Amino acid sequence: NPRLALAPIPSDPASPQASGLGYVEDATKVDKAKFARYADGQKCGVCALYQGGEGSEWGGCGIFAGQAVAAAGWCSAFAPKA
After folding, report:
1. pLDDT at position 56
2. Which of 19, 28, 39, 74 is deepest in the core (most CB within 10 A)?
3. Torsion 70-76-77-80 (CA) sign
4. Does 1 score more than 70 pLDDT?
5. Which residues contact 36 (CB under 8 A, 6 or more apart)?
6. Cα-Cα-Cα-Cα dihedral sign, residues 31, 37, 43, 49
7. How many Cα atoms sit within 13 Å of 32 on the Cβ side?
8. How confident is the model at residue 14 (pLDDT cuts 50, 70, 90)?
9. In angstroms, rounded to a whole number, what is the distance separating the alpha carbons of residues 44 and 39?
């Protein structure tokens, strides 16, 4: 039997890992007082860790193994694509 690839489940922003990294599904809602390194335009979809396809709404992430993050989201592990 061939193995079926399951889509990653969305990361829960309230989980300890996500909340510790300040993950939000909408980058415009980043707590800028707590995460001062956030800059306008930063979002998961343009992060080097994002594994979703171009134009996808959700994709995998190197930080959230087995989970999906919103392309419009953000966390403090953000690293711009080279």
Report:
1. 92
2. 74
3. positive
4. no
5. none
6. negative
7. 8
8. confident
9. 12
Q: Which two tokens stand for residue 36?
A: 């001062």
Nearest-angstrom CA–CA distance, 69 and 44: 7
46: which 2 tokens?
Answer: 């343009």
Question: Per DSSP, what are the bridge partners of residue 60?
Answer: 68
Average of per-residue pLDDT across 59-64? 93
For tokens 């087995």, what's the residue? 66
Structural contact between residues 61 and 71, judged by C-beta atoms closer than 8 angstroms: no
pLDDT at 58 over 50: yes
Supply the pTM of this predicted model. 0.86
> Residue 40, class by beta-carbon neighbours within 10 Å (0-12 exposed, 13-18 middle, 19+ buried)?
exposed
